[in-house]
Amino acid sequence: MKSASLTIFPYYFNGSDYYPVIPLVFLTGGKRIRSQALVDSGATISIFNKEVADSLGVKIEKGDKTILGGVGGRIIGYVHKLHIRVAGKEFICPIVFSSEYLVSFNLLGRMEFFKRFRIIFEEKKNFLKLE
Hints:
- With 131 residues, the chain is mainly β.
- The chain has one domain (16-115): Acid Proteases (Cathepsin D, subunit A, domain 1).
- It has one helix at residues 50-56; strands at residues 7-10, 12-13, 18-19, 21-28, 31-39, 46-49, 64-70, 73-86, 89-98, 107-108, 119-122, 127-130.
- The chain is globular, with a radius of gyration of 15 Å.
């Protein structure tokens, strides 16, 4: 039996608190664009802001329109299926881009991302494990 590889990410410290923010790479159009996002078990789908879409050359409105709701209210976004690499694994992940998304962290939600890993949040030690 093949053992799964383990990648450990220390939490990001923003000056007052720690967050499970991890690096990722978008693989699009022959380019590799580095980014980062908060791993969010409460988010159904991943969501990134307009600036990331612009850096990738993604035309936001060309995706499938969706309305997302949460603690902050409702926003309109557009779903795009993009090739990403996280912790050495490459896969297609649905990502919502929205010019209305103004929160400080991009989010990696459950859809497709959580299927790829065993995810362990080590809150006491401020790190995240992906296996």
